[in-house]
Amino acid sequence: MSDHPREAQRHLEELEELNICDDIWLDTLALIGRVEVGTKFALISARFDAIVAIHLRHRKWMLGTLYIQRARSGTG
Question: How many distinct structural domains can be found in the chain?
Fold first, then answer.
């Protein structure tokens, strides 16, 4: 999470909007009640989104140099 108050507030607002496809998960997890499934997946989704957002914000992705060459046997 960000130390900046506006960023923290925006992040909390984003957490309020969680979309869960209940048809698939309720059939898959029939032993757990509807409310329990929704609650558990909302928490998992919110935590995963926060982890990914923090990770991608602090990393710089670089591929470097990519060389494309034909195989020695002439195939490929």
Answer: 1
Q: Is the pTM of this model over 0.70?
A: no
Alpha-carbon distance of 70 to 58, in angstroms, equals 37
**Domain assignment of residue 46, given as a range:** 5-58
Let me know if residue 49 belongs to a domain: yes
Helix 5-15 vs helix 34-58: crossing angle, to nearest 10:
150
Query: In residues, how long is the chain?
Result: 76
Q: Is the dihedral of CA 27, 28, 33, 34 positive or negative?
A: negative
What radius of gyration do the chain's Cα atoms show? 21
pLDDT tens per residue, the chain (76 residues)?
556 677 777 776 766 665 656 676 667 777 777 778 778 878 888 888 888 888 777 766 655 676 777 778 776 5
Distance from C-alpha of 8 to C-alpha of 23, rounded to nearest angstrom: 32
